[in-house]
Amino acid sequence: GIVSPPPTAVPTGAPTSAPTGLPTPQPSPAPTSHPSASPAPSRYFLEAALVAHYGMDGGVAVDDHGPFGNATYVEGRTRKDTALDGTDALNVTGARKGVRLPAGVTRRILGGRERGVCLWARVDKWRKAALFGYGAAATGGSATGAPGKPEAFGLAVDDDVGFVALDFGDGYPVKAEVPARAGQWHHYCLVYDDGNATLYYDSVIQKTTKIALNTSNSSQFHLGAGLDGADALDGSIDEVYIYEEALTQDAIDLIYSRVTSPPSSVPSPEPSSMPSRAPTSLPTGVPTSAPSPMPSSMPTTAVPTSKPSAPPTAAPTPATPEPTGAPSEAPSAMPTVEGLGVAGTLRAVALPQACDDAAFLGAVEAALVAATNASRADVRCVGYAWTRSDLYWGRRLQGSEGEGGKLPETAVPTSVPTSNPSALPSPKPSRGPTAVPTSIPSPVPTASPAPTSLEAFELDYRVHASYARHPAIRAETFDDEVKTMINAAIERGVFVDVFNKEKVTAEVQTVETAAIYRTVAPSPAPSLAPTTTGYRLAGILSAEVVGGDEGFVEAPIETLVNLTKPLIVKLKTRPSADVAVTLTAAGTGSALRFYEEDSKRPGFALASDPGSTTSTKTIPSNTTTLTVIAGALRDRVNSGTSFSQTVEISLDSEDPNYCCGRHTASFELEVGDVDTSLISTGKFLSKVPPVTSGDGGATTMKLDENAATYQFTVSLTSKPFHRVGLEVLGDVDAFSDITYGDVDERVYNPERLVFVDPDDWAAPVTWSFHIEDDDVLDGNRNYKVQLRAVSNDTNYDGVTSATLTCVVLEDDVAF
User: Are 113 and 199 in contact (CB under 8 A)?
Assistant: First the structure.
């Protein structure tokens, strides 16, 4: 550092007799009247509970808050639109199944957990359509007669204009009438908390209903569509907020009136705040007889003694970066300390920007150290990333463990000069009067008004202790002990005392969770060389299908074993005990299956294994790799050229590094779809396979005129998303009548469609075409008909069957 020059033997003379002149009583020039600043929008209001935010900037659905980014899937197309406030919105009219969000979006808003979803929407075509939805259709009651719990959560508009429906998977039984009409932007929020679901329309409560949700993860979150992409919306969506807490009326008011409203286009011509007032007291008079010795403006260092009392302690080397690979040679030895850590969550109340406030986070860390006698603690808000130095427990070191040891103390002048002052005293008083304001207030506001309300946050914490400091630590109970110590500290007021000392406005309320894990950290002893010990943190290194998505297609069960692929999960470190790996498949149709590997055909499924959408396999101790065989069972749903399936992975083990589901991962697979939406027709009781229009063939039947009833079987080739109506085209008038049905035969009316329900798509229905016998000698003749589909399912609408040709053989003769 810089050392001050040695002091003179005697201080310099007394200062001048009087200080500078008095300040003016009021600032000059006088400021304008109180300003009025437009509140700046804040996209991260209530950020601690925010799961994802899709602002639709550029007309693209991107999570600009959390980790989900642009991992969305659209079948069809979307385009950029203009929102109510003139910013960008997302038009979903061309997306046949809306916009599907990543599976992780719903991870913390399933079951009966509280939640809230808010968005702006403009409905261009008012019909039955969903604004958003996820989960599954409500299941039936139990064997005891108790009704099943609704397993979906969503919001939709009904066929009747002005009606909004709350979708819990039970067919929209809860509806509310609102003054919305087609082509209008309005704000919708659906909130669930403690058995109550509440609909807010333009920030006003429209409907509250009691319901016990048990939302499943069967269908991912869809924007502009409902479960599995059904009931797609014709319209636009903007400013989608997804929360894992139930929003209050005040919060929704802010989101509706401030968060999503644009700032004023022209700044206010007046400043955002008044300048400081004139000093309230006059400056002190002439200084006392002898000035106090003042420290020099430059930092000083004490003159060392002639002989050090002890060798200086070397400063620890800074944390080395995490190695990117195995070192080329063995690192030099470095003493290490085996330790134990506890990770968990705290619930706290603080100012809205506390997550970015180093004083608040540092105070919580200091309180945790005081509560647990740990060697250190780290804290972050849930949803924030740990910094690289956090991985070394080095973001904020406590006490003497800080960088460079304790902070230097600021020198304070004494009232009487010492015999050997450390610096030359100043010839002037140490503190003069307050300076007169000289600058004119800025015409442009520089900041929004400071928030005064408090908000709730969830904090991730990590407490680290070494065996050297706590030799009696028992790994089996350490997490419970730490949780107990923190709770006791909260009750004793330890956190309050630390917050008061640090002048932090906050309160820690409860310890939510605690989980244990082992660590190996460098000891405080310095080293001249880096070490790789302990830097490879436990976790999932990778999870992927060998060869990627290419060639991964769905198939019927009889051929699926030949179309499977290996899925490999790798861990970052070798576990000390077996690790149970649970894989779960989710997505449209849930076609993905996991199989046992055939030992005789590595990389292929065992033919006798029926497969499952959930599978738990084991990675043996001291190994890092697991291979599971994955395949896509044909689901008979036409999802386009491909559809997405999500693989979710979680770990559990007796090894503390991999226990308790601490490590999770997910990734998406694109599966090639082989299903088609066609009409299949075949001859009744014939062994000849049915044909479709896609086969390019036709079905021909020849009969004598006196027994001419032509019977064909008709079915669909895949499950439709909406019911399908069938009509007969062609030589309809040539037949005396047309009937359909097997048990309950009905006469076909050309003015009405014959409907096929989605659940009956595969059941063949017999159609009969009757020719009336006559006495006219008119020779052999051909009559041709086709069946055409009419449906809200765009895959089926307008599809025609293969041509059905009825050949009438003349049996009349001339005498």
Answer: no
